[in-house]
Structures are given as C-alpha cells and as structure tokens.
Write a structure and sequence with these properties.
The protein has about 300 residues and is of the alpha/beta class. It has helices spanning about 5-30, 45-60, 75-85, 110-115, 125-135, 145-160, 180-190, 205-210, 255-260, 275-300, and strands spanning about 5, 35-40, 65-70, 95, 170, 190-195, 210-215, 235, 240-245, 250, 265. The strands form three sheets. Strands 1-11-8-7-5-6 form a six-stranded parallel β-sheet. It has a three-stranded parallel β-sheet with strand order 3-2-4, sandwiched between helices. InterPro entries: Aminoacid_DH-like_N_sf, NAD(P)-bd_dom_sf, THF_DH/CycHdrlase, THF_DH/CycHdrlase_cat_dom, THF_DH/CycHdrlase_CS, THF_DH/CycHdrlase_NAD-bd_dom.
Length: about 300
C-alpha cells in the first residue's frame, strides 16, 4: 500500500520557509520587499478562485501583491502594454498571466506570456526560460511551478534530494506548462526520462518501466493500476471535474488512484497533491527573483 504524498503539508512547509527567508532578508536589508503581480483578463469564476488563493498565500507571509484586472474587451496591444508597465515597474518582482484568457477578442496568449521579462517570469513559461531549462542552464532558469512542485514532492516523499538520479522517469503528456518542462527538469536532475503522448505505442508497457511516473494528460483515471511498476513513485497532475447529479463537483486525477495506491510506494492524491505545490513554488520563485534583482544584481552594478 502506497504512502500518501501530502501536497498540502509539503506546500505549507515551502511557503512557511519563504516567509522565514523574507524575515531574515529584511533583517539584513530593511528596504527589501518581494511583490507578485497577477494579470487577469475577464472574470472567469474559476480563475477568480485560483487568483484569490495565490494572493492570500502570498500576503500571509508578508509578500507584496498586485492584482491587475483587465476588461474582456482588451486588445492584444493594450494587454502587452500592461505587461510592459509591470516589466518597467521596479517594485514588481514577479509577473504571471492567469490562463485561460477570458477575452472577446482573439489574443495570442503565447506572445503575451513571452512579453514578460524573463527575470520576472515566475511561472517560468517564457521561451527564454523554457529554452534555458531544455539546455540544462539550471542556475539561470526560473523553473515552471508545476514541474518544480512535482520534483519537490518526489524529493520530500522519499527524503532524498538525489532520488531522481539514475531512475527511470516516465512523463505522460508533452504540454508546454507541465509535461515537456517536467521531463527536462527530471532529466537535468539526472533521471533517464521518457516522454509519452497520445501517439505513443505500448503505453502501459512504457509506464511499467517507470521508477517515477508523472502524469499530466487531462483524462480522468486514464492510468490503470496494472500500468504502475511495483514500488514506483506516482505524481498525478490531473484535475478533472465531474459534475454530480446533486450539483456538487468531484475532482479526479489522471491516475486510477484506488488501484494504483495498491502497487506504488508513494502516490499523490487529487485534490491535495500537486495543486497546492504549484502555488507554493510560485511564491518561492517570486522571493528568489526579488533577491536576485534587488540584492544580487544591485551588488554587481555598484
């Protein structure tokens, strides 16, 4: 029976540590602050919930927050100008654009993300950061939050910072936000990484080779229990919503949790696994970039 990986507890620990680090940094540099700006287009109710959660977590540990809420009538040009303003604002350390954009006009979301200064790209999603990650320039990369959270969960669950080294890692999904960067991040932590996707043949056999199985495909209970290698660590990034008859909603992961937990050594639940980690790593990235920009870089420029 697998040990449950408690993403809520592990993420709380990450956020608390950032809070401590902010206090310590302020003790040495009284003017220090770290500010996260969130750009939202439109008024999607699910986005409002996610944003509220991020702002609350950040504010609780003394991190500054800035909410930039824009009309669903906005043009590409005006949205990019709003990003430019935040890039040029010395008080802002991290910028994220809440996706999906809720806009009546056609907006190229990739161009909008790419407009973010790579030093303030705390979601790690600009082409600049993606390229650095793929090339293994880890000390110059801001890690995308969900893959970073997945790596941290594996390290914390196993109690071994080097657990990934030499392991077979199989990532299901090749999205820009989770699958592809997760595969790169695990590879540069010295795992032997395979990416599987909708055209992969013999998928169950591929999964059975994984010491670490990371699943991010957006299909409820897609990965069956007998696809999991005995003793594997299973990280389930899926969030699939089922509307129940009584109007309530139930969340399912991409893995058949009940079956997989009988075989795996460690497994994340949904909810309460990967989800909370994404927010925690966003807050950690924002703090690290504030230190980099306000303290490290300013020392170098004197």
């Amino acid at each position: 029976m697998a040990k449950l990986i408690d993403g809520k507890a592990i993420s709380d620990k990450v956020v608390e540590q950032v809070g401590e680090d902010i206090k310590k940094t302020r003790a040495e540099h009284p003017d220090f602050s770290a500010t996260l700006a969130i750009v939202q287009v439109g008024n999607r109710s699910d986005s409002n919930v996610y944003i509220g959660h991020k702002l609350k977590k950040a504010a609780k540990i003394g991190m500054g927050t800035r909410m930039v809420k824009l009309s669903d009538q906005i043009s590409q040009e005006d949205l990019e100008k709003a990003i430019d303003d935040l890039n040029n604002d010395p008080e802002v350390d991290g910028i994220i654009v809440q996706l999906p954009l809720d806009c009546v006009n056609k907006i190229d979301a990739d161009s909008v993300i790419d407009r973010i200064s790579h030093q303030k790209d705390v979601d790690g999603l600009t082409r600049e950061n993606a390229g650095r990650l793929m090339r293994g320039e880890l000390d110059r990369t801001i890690f995308p939050c969900t893959p970073y959270g997945c790596l941290h969960l594996v390290q914390e669950a196993t109690g071994d910072k080097n657990y990934v080294q030499g392991k077979r890692v199989v990532v299901l999904g090749r999205s820009k936000i989770v699958g592809s960067p997760a595969a790169a991040l695990f590879m540069w932590h010295n795992g032997t990484t395979t990416i599987c996707h909708s055209k992969t043949q013999n998928l169950p056999e591929m999964c059975r080779e994984a010491d670490i199985l990371v699943v991010a495909i957006g299909k409820a209970k897609f990965v069956k229990g007998d696809w999991v290698k005995p003793g594997a660590v299973v990280i389930d990034c899926g969030i699939n919503v089922e509307e129940l008859a009584d109007g309530k909603r139930k969340l399912w992961g991409d893995v058949d949790f009940e079956a997989a937990k009988e075989v795996a050594s460690h497994i994340t639940p949904v909810p309460g696994g990967v989800g909370p980690m994404t927010v925690a790593m966003l807050i950690k990235n924002t703090y690290l970039q504030a230190v980099q920009r306000r303290i490290t870089n300013s020392k170098g420029s004197h």
